[in-house]
Input
Amino acid sequence: MDYQQILDDIYLQVQSLAGVGRQADYIPALAQVDPEQMGMCLETLDGDLFAVGDAQVRFSIQSISKVFALAMALSMEGENLWQRMGREPSGSTFNSMVLLEVEHGKPRNPFINAGAIVMSDILLERLPNPHRDFIHFVRALAGNDSIAYNPIVAESERSQGYLNAAIANLLKYHHNIKGDIEQVLRFYFLMCSVEMSCQELAHAFLAFANHRRPFDYNGVKLTASQVKRMNAIMQTCGFYDEAGEFSYLVGLPGKSGVGGGIAAFCPQRYGVAVWSPRLNSKGNSVVGMKALELLTTDTEESIF
Output
């Protein structure tokens, strides 16, 4: 498979989408990002690397960080994790409070904001040094010790985080947050502020592409069965209320973020990441969605 030629062709084809969508300007720091950037990187399980565009530029991964939080929470809590959140698609926007109120403070899944805030509470309670331990885990997955939080982005999110604060208060009311709300929110925003490149994300997601290999990164250990189940949740819940559309068009497990990134993988083949800051109405990258659709169409490699 000539992945480099395929990525080169995709890069040319998505140029027709330039200017479509808008970056997440409701987060002040993200509103300053140049929306015309685009990068894509694919890394195979054999270690072959293929890239186009701004694949080396780091950006705010935002909700892609929820995959890493889930890996840590699941490794510590095991099946007990699902007592505090579900595994079903929400069918609602990522920051909706409607289902959370109806279902008495139990988030539908770990990838909506409410689920990730509960995971933040778990990590704060269980980790010796949550801020250090989380970033060390991400660095181990990506194979790069220079990956870091962006405190400016984190503070920018907190300054406008009224809806997330409301979600946290509702979770607290239903006894699904044990810690201090402000500390939980600040850790949640800090996780979202992690900056990575497409190349680093593609490498990090290889750990989920090869679930037959032991998962042990910086002391975070998962069984093959747990990784398989994480992958299923990425497939069904990784794109908010556009998860069905992503499965239909792309057919890969993955996770998006409002920073414009999408990370995905083809089991036993490759990890892949795309970044373009302009988002559609569902909060997913316009160019990223199209690029991955073209990738699985051209390669005829998907889980279906």
Summary: Residues 113-126 form the longest helix (14 residues).
